[in-house]
C-alpha cells in the first residue's frame, strides 16, 4: 500500500525512516480508468456518521482487509480523522488511500503533476 500521511507519528509506526516534513502530492489520473476500480467514498465525517466511524474503527482494529471475503477496496476516499475514539476529524481535509496493486499501478502510470514540500511516500 502507498500513502502520503500528514500524521507522521502514525506513518513512523509503519516506517521508522519517515521524515518530519509535510508534502502535497498530485497526479493527473484518467477519470474513466479510476471509475473502473472498486472505490469506497465517505463524504461526511462528523461524529454522527456511523458508517464512516465503523469503517475507521474496523481499520484501526488491526484488520488487514476491509471488504467481506478478505479483500481490499482499490481506493478509499474520506475525511482525515485525528482521534477515532473521540470521533474527531481534521477540518477541511480529505484523504485518498490506494490499497491494491491495480490502484497503485494507476498512480505509477499517471502523470505526476506537482510536489510541494519534502514529504515521504511510504511503500
Q: Key terms for this structure?
A:
disordered C terminus; alpha+beta; 4 helices; 123 residues; disordered N terminus
Briefly say what this structure is.
The chain has 123 residues and is of the alpha+beta class. It is built from four helices and five strands, in the order H-E-H-E-H-E-E-H-E.
Give an account of the 3D structure.
The protein has 123 residues and is α+β, with helices and mostly antiparallel strands. It has one domain. The protein is 26% helix and 29% strand. It has helices spanning 8-14, 31-35, 50-60, 101-109; strands at 23-28, 39-41, 75-83, 88-98, 111-117. The strands form 2 sheets. It has a 3-stranded mixed sheet. The protein has a two-stranded antiparallel sheet with strand order 1-5. Strand 3 (75-83) and strand 4 form a beta hairpin. It is globular. The model is unreliable at 1-9 and 118-123 (pLDDT under 50).
Layout of helices and strands, plus pairs?
Elements lengths: L7 H7 L8 E6 L2 H5 L3 E3 L8 H11 L14 E9 L4 E11 L2 H9 L1 E7 L6
Parallel strand pairs: 2-3
Antiparallel strand pairs: 1-5, 3-4
Rg calculated over all Cα atoms: 15 Å
Poorly predicted regions are 1-9, 118-123
- % residues in beta strands: 25-35%
Q: Give the total of domains.
A: 1
